[in-house]
Design goal:
Layout: H1 31-35, E1 38-39, E2 49-54, E3 60-66, E4 76-80, E5 86-90, H2 93-98, E6 112-116, E7 122-128, E8 134-142, E9 161-166, E10 180-185, E11 190-194, H3 198-209, E12 214-219, E13 222-224, H4 254-261, E14 269-275, E15 295-296, H5 310-319, E16 335-341, E17 348-350, H6 351-363, E18 368-371, H7 380-391, E19 395-399, E20 418-423, E21 441-444, E22 448-451, E23 457-460, H8 463-480, H9 486-496, H10 516-521
Parallel strand pairs: 1-3, 14-16, 14-18, 15-16, 18-19, 19-20, 20-21
Antiparallel strand pairs: 2-8, 3-7, 4-6, 4-8, 5-7, 9-11, 9-12, 10-11, 13-17, 22-23
Helix pairs in contact: 5-8, 6-7
Length: 524
């Protein structure tokens, strides 16, 4: 079976897992216990404060706080525990009542609980100790840079399947031993047929290829994910001042663009993120994520929650709220994000899932589709879905791939797609970025900070990070002038790009590096 590569977040862990004991008896945290929660007192960043009291008859003590009250002072809460006091965090009251423990803990000192202040609503700290004992837990607000973490994807073993498109006007009458047949995209006349073995699928494929009623048949191949705010100073792609040995000005012209459009009316623009889903509960995503318009094609669920992190990272680059003291700044404040989950918790998916995702984005009225994924082999099923989307004047943006090869990945190299490669802090092509015929643009894609699925901000590197820069700028242009056609947006993005490498178009940088200010300036 073909192996698909989608740009992964290239990250390395700098904090180790904290050995804090999770609550063993989740059912003992009753709503009545939560009702007795005390509010974490306000305090200065320097002084901190101690949470003091006695454990109740069940051995619990509960505290609550609102991240918005502390986020101006730092990026993380730290609670110093000791050998006989255990702490567990919950991102919301609903999570606490259901026993859904916040599952990322970090060790700053031997026994410190470390929690990001990126959530909306109210968070809860549940302390556990010996019933009736006194406790004192020092609490601080600290400021940290985005962390780095390794994200590796493992493709799950699945039964082989064929994608079969029936010719217009013809009726396909045979399934040739398929154990399951499902309509993949009725408008495109594509079906997915599952077989018990690869040999059965290969035999059926040969029979379909001899049938006059079949336009094409192909294997359903796996895909994988390509890998003044608290962290804004780290967003060199928006403003490169030469920080961390970068080249001053090697950014997308975001600051100049903001000045240019100040006071102008912006309309909401729908951007479909075909990825691992989105976590909508961050304050930076408030009012931006339309979970009701999205869909989870991995689990067959209407709610496309992110259980991998890749999708939330992409979404943050496009649309995180700016100048709200929270984590970061997105490119277009008027983006409406449509989360479409086509990648599972390991970052793996399939051609059939991607076809469904493109179809869903088209039906939901997306103006821009972001696909930070791809592979080496083309797919006629995906081509059909892309063609149908383009007819609806949707701009489709995809990552060029992360193998450092002279061949652009698919679907980025499709004629229906605007392909994006990655540059680094010094305005040169990233070593991992695929290049070659069909590359359209490049954009910053090295050490880009954004969210993961659990509230942390991490540095991500990959063409996956470059692609949402372009999608974000494209959506901003449409927000400024909703009548703009997708073809016009693409033409302006190429024309306005900063020429890098050889003069004019070249296969290493395409039309050049994304320039937001120039693009906005050229909107007719």
């Amino acid at each position: 079976m073909r192996t698909w590569i989608a740009g992964s977040l290239a990250l390395g862990l700098i904090c180790s897992t904290l050995p804090v004991k999770a609550l063993e008896k989740q059912e003992m945290i009753r709503p009545a216990t939560l009702m007795k929660a005390k509010e974490v007192p306000a305090f200065s960043k320097q002084a901190g404060s101690a949470l003091t009291g006695r454990f109740d008859s069940d051995g619990f003590a509960v505290w609550y706080f609102d991240a918005k009250e502390f986020v101006a002072k730092g990026t993380h809460f730290e609670f110093e525990l000791d050998y006989d006091t255990y702490g567990t965090m919950f991102a919301s009251k609903a999570d606490a009542e259901a026993g859904r423990v916040y599952n990322r803990y970090y060790q700053v000192t031997d026994d410190t609980l470390y929690f990001p202040l990126s959530w909306s609503g109210r968070q809860y700290l549940v302390l556990e100790g010996y019933p009736g004992d006194r406790y004192s837990v020092p609490a601080y607000v600290s400021r940290y840079e985005p962390i780095e973490e390794s994200m590796t994807a493992a493709v799950k073993a699945v039964k082989p399947a064929l994608l079969v498109q029936t010719r217009s006007g013809a009726m396909r009458a045979q399934s040739f031993g398929a154990s399951k047949v499902e309509s993949l995209a009725s408008e495109l006349r594509i079906e997915r047929l599952v077989y018990n073995s690869y040999a059965d699928a290969e035999a059926a494929k040969k029979k379909f290829e001899r049938s006059n009623s079949v336009a094409f048949t192909e294997f359903d191949a796996p895909i994988q994910a390509f890998g003044v705010d608290a962290y804004q100073k780290h967003q060199w792609s928006l403003q490169n001042t030469g920080q961390k040995k970068g080249l001053k000005g090697a950014d997308i012209g975001f600051v100049a663009m903001q000045k240019r459009i100040k006071g102008k009316k912006l309309s909401a623009t729908k951007v479909a993120v075909l990825d691992s889903g989105i976590n909508p509960t961050y304050a930076d995503f408030a009012g931006k994520v339309r979970m009701d318009l999205g869909y989870d094609f991995i689990n067959g669920d209407k709610t496309a929650w992110d259980d991998n992190g890749h999708g939330s990272h992409v979404a943050g680059i496009i649309a995180a709220g700016g100048n709200n003291t929270y984590g970061m700044t997105g490119i277009n404040p008027m983006t409406t994000l449509i989360p479409i989950k086509v990648l599972d918790e390991s970052g793996a998916g399939s051609v059939s899932g991607l076809v469904k995702g493109i179809q869903h984005a088209t039906k939901q009225g997306a103006r821009v589709i972001n696909m930070s994924l791809g592979g080496s082999s083309s797919s006629k099923s995906i081509e059909s879905a892309l063609a149908a989307a383009v007819k609806k004047t949707i701009l489709i943006v995809a990552a060029s791939g992360n193998e450092g090869r002279g061949t652009v990945a698919y679907p980025a190299r499709s004629k229906y797609v605007l392909s994006v490669g990655a540059t680094g802090r010094k305005d040169t092509k990233a070593s991992f970025s695929n290049y070659g015929t069909g590359l359209d643009l490049v954009a910053p894609g090295v050490s880009i900070p954004s969210y993961l699925a659990d509230g942390e901000l991490l540095y991500g590197s990959g063409t996956s990070m470059a692609t949402p820069h372009v999608a974000g700028v494209a959506s901003l242009m449409i927000s400024l002038k909703p009548s703009l056609k997708a073809s016009s947006v693409e033409s302006i993005l190429k024309k306005s790009a900063k020429d890098l490498g050889k003069k004019g178009y070249d296969t290493s940088y395409g039309a050049g590096r994304l320039n937001t200010d120039n693009a906005v300036k050229l909107i007719p």
